[in-house]
């Protein structure tokens, strides 16, 4: 399979720079991954398409105010994006500057906090605060790390809207965006219908926005992200499938967590790093349906949803979404893939 197989044309005006006024007022495109049939609705109508035996699995990661601005001791401007906090004072980060800082360099943040560059490994710098702790620093001067295609400065409202209402475990530098459409009222309606819910954690890294740089996608190396899935969630997944219900992943990050914890023998509780790469031909072991936003052309997330519903059905649905003026990407509209593709996919042997 070639990278260009996952391309589609998207007018710039369909990229959502801001969220809808109300979370659940976004649009919802329903796709039957088996037949390719498409239907249109609003996200608040999701409850009508769920059954009491279903299990919704959410990612409860919370986005850090991980973008920081400052200067080098020479006076040059720097922009820091924290990728992962390793301790109260040490973190791995992406650093943008006219000239890459060397180990031993001192960087000074906007409010005067100093940090030292300890080392560099690939694209990431290891940084150490010389005073304070990362949580306090980000709370004081951190900016929400909006994706690069939202080409504007972050605003005060983003601190709330670029988080899910159920976010709990800090550690992500990008939101699990399928969950942004849920509000408390909709969650209450889902619970009242008898639909069960479960929460996993996968800390979304900046690598989720990294472009695939090889033509043959099988040569792509996935970034690694930390996940955790509890024994309680594993048992809920098992019971749901035993009862004939659907395990519905809310977002591709929930898919990555569930499938990382699954083998042919079933799903098991666990935590650790995952670099799972899901593309057409992958056999899903724990996910029966998927709620997801619309993804970037030629991205690994396009490949993941194409594995679930087939590349043809996904591209046809995306072209329909463009035609119907859906809003795309993190602050955009959503898709509910109600059933997986189970036929013979010609993409698998390409």
From TrEMBL:
InterPro entries: QueA (IPR003699), QueA_dom1 (IPR042118), QueA_dom2 (IPR042119), QueA_sf (IPR036100). It comes from the Bacteria. It is an enzyme of class 2 (transferase). Coiled coil: none annotated. GO terms for biological process: tRNA queuosine(34) biosynthetic process. The keyword Nucleus does not apply. It holds the Pfam family Queuosine_synth. This is S-adenosylmethionine:tRNA ribosyltransferase-isomerase. The lineage of its organism: Bacteria, Pseudomonadati, Pseudomonadota, Gammaproteobacteria, Kangiellales.
């Amino acid at each position: 399979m070639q990278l260009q197989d996952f391309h589609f044309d998207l007018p710039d005006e369909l990229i959502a720079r801001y969220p809808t006024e109300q979370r659940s007022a976004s649009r919802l495109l329903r796709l039957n991954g088996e037949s390719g049939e498409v239907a249109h609705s609003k996200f608040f109508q999701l409850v009508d398409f769920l059954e009491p035996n279903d299990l919704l699995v959410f990612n409860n990661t919370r986005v850090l105010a991980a973008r920081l601005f400052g200067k080098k001791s020479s006076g040059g401007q720097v922009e820091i994006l924290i990728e992962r906090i390793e301790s109260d004072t040490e973190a791995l980060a992406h650093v943008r500057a006219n000239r890459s800082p060397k180990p031993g360099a001192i960087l000074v943040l906007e409010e005067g906090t100093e940090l030292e560059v300890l080392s560099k490994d690939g694209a990431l710098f290891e940084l150490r605060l010389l005073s304070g702790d990362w949580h306090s620093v980000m709370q004081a001067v951190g900016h929400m790390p909006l994706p690069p295609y939202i080409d504007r400065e972050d605003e005060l409202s983003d601190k709330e809207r670029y988080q899910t209402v159920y976010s709990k475990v800090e550690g992500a530098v990008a939101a699990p965006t399928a969950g942004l459409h849920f509000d408390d009222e909709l969650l209450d309606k889902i619970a009242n219908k008898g639909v069960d819910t479960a929460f996993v954690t996968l800390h979304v890294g900046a690598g989720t926005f990294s472009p695939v740089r090889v033509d043959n996608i099988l040569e792509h190396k996935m970034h690694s992200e930390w996940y955790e899935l509890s024994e309680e969630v594993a048992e809920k997944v098992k019971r749901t499938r035993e009862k004939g219900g659907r395990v519905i992943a809310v977002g591709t990050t929930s898919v990555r967590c569930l499938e990382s914890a699954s083998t042919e023998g079933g799903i098991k509780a666990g935590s650790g790093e995952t670099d799972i790469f899901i593309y057409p031909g992958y056999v899903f072991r724990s996910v029966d349906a998927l709620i997801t936003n619309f993804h970037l052309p030629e991205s690994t997330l396009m490949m993941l949803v194409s594995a679930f519903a087939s590349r043809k059905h996904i591209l046809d649905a995306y072209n329909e979404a463009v035609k119907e003026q859906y809003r795309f990407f993190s602050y955009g509209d959503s898709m509910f893939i109600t059933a997986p593709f189970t036929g013979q996919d010609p993409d698998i042997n390409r």
